[in-house]
Amino acid sequence: MTSLETHFEVQAFLAYEARLLDEERYPEWLGLFTEDAHYWAPGVENRGRSDKEGTYAPSRMAYFDDTLDDLRRRVTRFTAPTAWAEDPATRHLHVVSNIEVEDGETAGELLVRSVFVNYRGQGDVDAATLYGRREDVLRRVPDGGLRIARRLVVLRHAVLPAKNINTFF
Amino acid sequence: MKDDLLALRDLDDGWLDRRVFWDRDVYELELERIFARCWLFVAHESQLPKPGSFLTTWMGEDHVLVVRRRDGSIGAYLNSCPHRGNRVCTAEAGTARGFVCNYHGWSFDLDGRLAGVHESAAFGREPTFDRSKLGLTPVAQLDTYKGLVFATFDPDAPPLRDFLGDFAFYLDVMLDNDEGGTEFAGGSITSVLDCNWKIAAENFAGDALHAGWTHASGAEAMLGRGVAGLSGDDTESYHVNVNGHCWEFNLDGVGNAATLGDRRIIDYLRANEARFTERLGPLRAKMVGSISSVNVFPNFSFLPGQNTFRTWQPKGPHRTELHTWVLVNRDAPEEVKDAWRKGAMMTFSPSGVFEMDDGENWELATRANQGVVTRRQRLYYGLGSDTAIEHPELPGNVHRGQVNDANQRAFYRRWSELLRAGTWDEVPS
Ligand code: FES
Ligand SMILES: [Fe+2]
């Protein structure tokens, strides 16, 4: 059982992270990850319950299957002045909820589950809503703060109801 | 019907009528005369590894169930129950011994035959009930080309090899550069774009022009620099097309592959260059990973090098469902295959640093035509009007220079021919 204080700390951490994404503060957002971080958002397939292959798997296609360097590359695109599709800026809203915190497998790590909804408005009338579940491993670092060491994002969509994902979850 | 529109009379002069992207009746005719008649890509054989393997996909707006049968052959059927029309298979992929309809429990075997019915006593008393006539409706023809499975609803469609024609020579660049053939790396990703399907298809058919501009930020992310100009006098590059199938390319060998930003892929291509040359000859060996893009008419596209394979499924005149896969050589080392899987997703998936910039352009290029006055304004497709050449090695219609509209014009010419033809006999070959 984690303390009230830890739960509160995690909740504040995730809310801050969501705001960084809403405000497109990508370099700061990258700073929330450990150097060895893995960020994985598998493609979700519409498969039967008895299908042993499962609805997602590491060997299959993914929206993100990223090391920190991969994430940095994506941020390079987002912040390039030639990213025409990002100007005017997309109006992102990341809502994070249903936060559960427990001790991780490794000392100094927490296993954090949450759900998210990403609403976005783009251009004049373009809008999309993406949602899913997340499972994070947060690691306590020497300065006392928390960093994301692992994130699994499982979208609830088999057909992504949008033309792209121009943010992170 | 608007014969005048379908004739695209100004196309040879480099002009396209915008109504082709907007009108509902044009779209309905496309479903009948293109999607219900042409050979369409439905699967890669590797997606159906054993008897009972199945997947569901689209042929036009018809939902289709593709299965590996007991005898190893592949079948494809309308995924709609002959009883009341319900979808028979509700998963996108998996393994099954047969399919049972959820509505009244009719069951079908892998050959599509009606195998059993619920309350069989009632049906047994019914003289009009003939089990042999109530199977799933099969496609008219199904065939494969080097791992790719195609099907057509039209019994009169020419054989797949004739439909592809000399384009097979080019397809071998991707499908036959290695003895072990190819496979899809695993899984697929599907997304939706509010654009006309042809805007995406013609982009892959010939639009090298957009690469350096639209994708400047993606190139910055993956290469640390923009895309170099593609139309200099010193570059050797082409538009080629056969029967409306289009390939634009240069001969830089690894220009597309380099955008994946993974050394292992470049090393693999370089290490195998001699083998590619042996199988394909020196010219085609340089196309394996070069700056290029391809559309197999009507809606099956891919990028050599990035190895993203995709279909643009029509969902109305202003909506397209994009299905994507990653192609790899079956005998490539596992870590190389995995590098391709990751690289293709990093660049060309809905979250990919290149793909991300296409959708918005295509959606807005579609939506603009809602305006009745806007729709009257022709679009410029005039690049490369005098670039046709004869080439000693390259078959089909060959044009010099990949910054060109020759393939796009060929794509719409084929579109026009098919929409105006009542039967395959009337389609110019
Ligand atoms: S609709 Fe399929 S069994 Fe009735
Ligand atoms: Fe593009």
UniProtKB/TrEMBL annotation, chain A:
Coiled coil: none annotated. One of its GO terms (molecular function) is 3-phenylpropionate dioxygenase activity. Pfam families: Ring_hydroxyl_B. It is an enzyme of class 1 (oxidoreductase). InterPro entries: NTF2-like_dom_sf, Rng_hydr_dOase-bsu. CDD domains: ring_hydroxylating_dioxygenases_beta. Its EC number is 1.14.12.19. SUPFAM superfamilies: NTF2-like. Keywords: Dioxygenase, Oxidoreductase. Gene3D superfamilies: 3.10.450.50. One of its GO terms (biological process) is 3-phenylpropionate catabolic process. Belongs to the bacterial ring-hydroxylating dioxygenase beta subunit family. This is 3-phenylpropionate/cinnamic acid dioxygenase subunit beta.
Automatic annotation (TrEMBL), chain B:
InterPro entries: RHO_NdoB-like_C, Rieske_2Fe-2S, Rieske_2Fe-2S_sf, Ring_hydroxy_dOase_asu_C_dom, Rng_hydr_dOase-A. CDD domains: RHO_alpha_C_NDO-like (cd08881), Rieske_RO_Alpha_N (cd03469). It comes from the Bacteria. The keyword Lyase does not apply. Gene3D superfamilies: Naphthalene 1,2-dioxygenase Alpha Subunit, Chain A, domain 1, Rieske [2Fe-2S] iron-sulphur domain. Residues 39-139 form the Rieske domain. Keywords: 2Fe-2S, Aromatic hydrocarbons catabolism, Dioxygenase, Iron, Iron-sulfur, Metal-binding, NAD, Oxidoreductase. One of its GO terms (molecular function) is monooxygenase activity. Belongs to the bacterial ring-hydroxylating dioxygenase alpha subunit family. This is Rieske 2Fe-2S domain-containing protein. The lineage of its organism: Bacteria, Bacillati, Actinomycetota, Actinomycetes, Streptosporangiales.
